[in-house]
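Weekly structure sync, notes
Attendees: PL (lead), two postdocs, one rotation student
Agenda item 3: pending single-chain targets
PL asked that the sequence for the first pending target be pasted directly into the notes so everyone works from the same version. It is reproduced below exactly as submitted, 176 residues in total.
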Amino acid sequence: MFLHHLTPADYRTQPWKNGRGTTTELWRLERDGQLLVRLSRASVVEDGPFSLFPGIERNLTVLSGPGFRLTGPGIDLRCAPLVPVAFTGDVEVTASETNSQQSDDFNVMTARGLPKPQVTLARNGHLTAGGTLALYALGPCEVNGHMVGRDDLILTEGPARLQGDWPVIAVRLQLP
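Predicted structure, written out during the meeting:
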């Protein structure tokens, strides 16, 4: 079983593709210069367009703040706190109903050729094996007996045992 523990000191901040904000990249996997998986955090602070990512499937979970609405051709999603929503990176989507209030979110991007990730909220229990698990801690907890701080990211293969008062965002990935 592989366990890799990343903390905010390991993350890097970079501008959005559309230049309207920044994202904090937590973890990235590429092959031959092509993005396979990216986990990141960002803040939506105003109504406006999201960046386009052709060939990428996206999943977003609001962590804090009131949330917002994402709309575009064939897309109308309410992004509510702690409810994962999925959409394609190929379609122009716009955030609205922010009411100029900041909402922080956790993002999962995967190459279209990969199986879509399963994104859930988990707490106190066992997560079964079946690919790579990425666990983003919303507060202090234990993963397989290993202490994890708020905003830490654990990458593991195999089952995970969670304990503590705080949930994690659990992302199950099927990597090539």
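Discussion points:
- The mean pLDDT is 93.
- The radius of gyration is 16 Å.
Action: rotation student to compare against the earlier draft before next sync.
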